[in-house]
Amino acid sequence: MEEEIKACRAMLKTLEKDVDAISFYSLTQATANRTGYRGFVDWAEKTSQTHEHLLVTLAQVAFVGAGLTYGAIFGSSRGDIGLMCYAFALFDCGFIVPTVALALLKWASQRPKNTVFASPQFWTLLLNVSLYGSVAAISVAICLLNISLLNLHFSVGQNGQLSNATVELNFDPTPAGTLALGCFGLAALVIIVSGLSHYVANGCDAMIKDFVGRRECCDGGLKDYVPV
To answer: Mean pLDDT in the chain?
Structure first.
């Protein structure tokens, strides 16, 4: 008798899951026909899978470039330090943007399927702008480093031999630091706005569950276990 009751309960849970799935697909069918995604979470999952490799690659290239440029700024014995500062700032932007984009995609893909959020087209546009901006920042940073090489000045000594180039500062590095901090602030603003939009649309319960942890029932375990 107990085995039959357990079998009925398991069947009932399966039916409830099937009903929830059918209800979800019926409610999101119009959105899928119009946008190709069954809501925001479906968009985040698919977009994360297709863009993860590119975002990780951009972040790695920018991180390595920023590290090498930072070391060159404070340890270089020749070259234009001003151009290096601007290259470092652009590498910094090229690292922050894809890292934040990938983190938001991973976060969004773990939301409940019925999460209410803005249109996927808006976030697709924002993601593409971020990607192209990151690629442009890294490309310009590499170009600035190449220009700093071209601007190396080797003076000719009395014996006709070239002497070593010196350190130069032809550009004020202050705007470069402002650019890097501005990119960091913009990324923080996007994170805050995304979080607030999500929790305002889905209620305080969603925020509490994210901070405390979602309480889910575990079906596995010992079948005949009786707590003492």
So the answer is: 76
Please give the Cα distance from 151 to 165 (Å, whole number). 10
CA dist 23 → 20, 114, 183, 213 (Å):
5, 11, 42, 26
Distance, CA of 200 to CA of 197 (rounded, Å): 5
Residues 29-55 pLDDT 10s: 555 555 656 667 777 888 888 888 999
Nearest to 128 by CA among 214, 50, 64, 192: 50
Query: How far lies 13's CA from each of 18, 21, 183, 216, in Å?
Result: 9, 12, 49, 14
What are the phi and psi torsion angles at 145 (to 5°)? -65, -40
pLDDT at 135: 93
Instruction: Return the percentage of the chain with pLDDT > 70, whole number.
Output: 64
